[in-house]
Task: structure prediction
Amino acid sequence: MKTILYEEGYPPALRETYLAMIYGSVDSDQYRKLYVRRPNGELIDVIKNGDLACAYFVSSILTLCGFIKDGVHTTVDETLRDVEASSWIRTDTASIGSLVVWKKRKCSDGTYHRHLGFFVGQGEVISNDAISGHPKCHSLIEKDIVGEVIREVETFYTYPYF
Result:
């Protein structure tokens, strides 16, 4: 089966397509649900109405653009394994389109998770917001109401072919 990338040129997609997909995702319902069927037949939403959807959101765009090899993922660890296997370069600084990896923090399911998003410039990122279940544009440095940093950046990844 040919993909649109093969039909229209050669992968990966152009950087402009990638950025358009990131910007166009804001407030989208596209990443709120991902159903799987358990062996007992029970149908469950594994990303809990967008609450745990950051890896699904990021890896979906990376997959559609041909920037990772193993497809869509539901965990940060698997997404980052694929990112590294797909020639992304770990770096201490971000440029527009870089992946952002935030350090672990306790989430609504009671466990600790890292978080993923896309750097879009001027200290802003687009990542999935667990509360609304939608991708949102927000500050790279997340702070609480009194100005304390609540989630620190762990690292960035940049695609080498931009």
The longest helix spans residues 54-64. The chain is about 20% helix and 30% strand. The beta strands are 35-37, 43-45, 89-91, 99-106, 112-121, 124-128, 135-139, 142-143, 149-151, 153-158. The two ends are 27 Å apart (CA to CA).
